[in-house]
Design brief:
heterodimer; A: mainly beta; 4-stranded antiparallel sheet; 30 strands; B: Ubiquitin-like (UB roll); globular
């Protein structure tokens, strides 16, 4: 029977949760790296026992951990993320220019076919890559040196490159998203980049339809249909049918279209999940109810999924990297909250149950479907 | 033999317990101690000082003999008691966050 392994990053350590294909009974290990912020962990699609983790601390900086046995044991690998060449400036909150400065690794995206190759999205926004299993990291400078970079500005969480999508059908095609700059696409493995924000409207910036400056919170893709992208923007849930060239609003009947995560069902490319959040000034759920919204029509029409989720006095948030889907049948969905709960659904969101309820604030959730 | 006390998180990262005991070549300074630590425990590179500039991380402090040496030059000689191994060189996470 197939199994799943859920990788959870929290403000105070990492947790690894495993279950058989029923996804009812869970074994939880951790905290790994207790006391450190774990912004992200992700396993290699080419070798599921190879897992990378971003471990950081305001005191002691950035560490990258690597496991070769599915998260049982770990070793620290290279942690030097040095911008290459002239560092350049970006826009600061007060409208002045400020040099790019490394803060942390937000997202690690292992290559689809090489366990030693991993892309890293960092704050201040830039893209790095290792080809030696994390021992050394080199910047893909074409992104940070894009002519628009001086107009990028930090969102509330910092100027982070938080999403990396590797297109399985078009070798060399990579999508990334930066808060607050927007989506960029490379068709040459990360050497050169183009902004992909046409159709986005952000009232929070001077020119709401500017080429860059949008606070994109997360983008998602179904691997069987990589030209279709879904986006949770600061406000607005969007869809692109042309590989990011243009975007349309598909928020439809959502109670609010502010939020952070968005993901696509593993077997149904038109089934999409979001977690609406009340507003950008409140950052908690509307009406005290934890509701995942699912569209089975690729957007516009959304249904609330509530079975097993608290429907009163719940004021948590679900952060951008804290939702994932497994590839079992029926498809599973997972998310973690800032209140430390990790919920799992083994029936595509129809019903939910907590794996754990009282972890530190959850930053990221990934899931691996294992043989 | 130089004695060094790491903060708990860095002891965990380096997989050591208790004090470090290090041989340091030449004058005993902050720089020579940190060079020796990073040579033996490469996973600590970047956690105490920047890997390029060698500047102390902002929330890390260096204490010895009941003195805060954090603002001293990294090339100043450390107290004789540290050089002689009578007193440890303390690497401390700054008190912050409540």
């Amino acid at each position: 029977m197939s199994r799943v392994r859920v990788l959870v990053g929290t403000r105070k350590g990492a947790f690894v949760m495993t279950a058989d294909g029923k996804r009812q009974s869970w074994d939880v290990s951790g905290p790994h790296f207790g006391g450190w912020e774990i912004y992200h962990l992700k396993g290699s699609p080419a070798d599921p026992n190879r897992i990378y983790a971003s471990q950081s601390s305001s005191w002691f900086g950035q560490v990258i951990q690597r496991s070769s046995d599915g998260g049982k044991t770990w070793e620290a690998v290279g942690n030097k993320f040095a911008y290459e060449g002239a560092v350049g400036n970006h826009l600061w909150y007060d409208g002045t220019q400020r040099p790019f400065e490394f803060a942390r690794v937000w997202h690690l995206e292992p290559s689809l076919n090489d366990p030693d190759t991993v892309y890293a999205g960092i704050q201040d926004a830039a893209m790095f890559r290792t080809t030696d299993g994390g021992q050394s990291w080199r910047e893909l400078t074409g992104l940070r040196t894009h002519p628009s970079a001086s107009a990028w500005q930090p969102g509330a969480g910092g100027m982070c490159l938080h999403t990396i999508l590797l297109d399985p059908s078009h070798p060399g095609r990579i999508y990334i998203a930066i808060s607050a700059a927007g989506v960029f696409r490379s068709d040459d493995g990360g050497q050169t980049w183009r902004p992909m924000n046409r159709g986005l409207v952000s009232e929070q910036i001077p020119n709401p339809t500017a080429e860059v400056g949008h606070c994109v919170h997360r983008i998602a893709m179904h691997p069987s249909r990589p030209n279709v992208l879904f986006m949770q923007k600061h406000w607005d849930v969007m869809r692109s049918d042309d590989a990011g060239e243009s975007w349309k609003d598909v928020g439809g009947n959502l109670p609010t279209d502010f939020g952070f995560p968005i993901d696509v069902h593993a077997h149904e490319p038109d089934t999409v999940y979001v977690v609406p959040i009340k507003s950008d000034s409140e950052h908690y759920l509307p009406d005290g109810k934890l509701r995942v919204y699912r569209s089975r029509t690729g957007g516009h029409e959304w249904e609330a999924l509530t079975k097993g989720l608290p429907q009163s006095h719940c004021y948590v948030n679900v952060l951008r990297d804290a939702m994932a889907v497994d590839a079992l049948e029926p498809g599973g969905v997972y998310f973690g909250t800032t209140g430390g709960q990790v919920y799992a659904s083994a029936d595509a969101g129809d019903s939910w149950a907590p794996i754990v309820r009282d972890l530190p604030s959850v930053v990221s959730v990934e899931v691996q479907t294992l043989p | 033999m130089i004695r060094v006390v790491l903060p708990a998180h860095l002891r965990t990262l380096a997989r050591v317990e208790g004090e470090l005991k290090l041989e340091v070549d030449g004058p005993v300074t902050q720089r020579s101690i940190l060079d020796a630590i990073e040579a033996r425990y490469p996973m600590l590179r970047g956690t105490i000082r920047d890997q390029d500039t060698r500047q102390r991380r902002a929330f890390v402090r260096f204490f010895a003999c009941e003195q805060d040496l954090s603002q001293e030059s990294p090339d100043d000689p450390l107290p004789e008691a540290v050089a002689a191994g009578a007193e440890p060189f303390l690497i401390v996470g700054a008190m912050a966050g409540g």
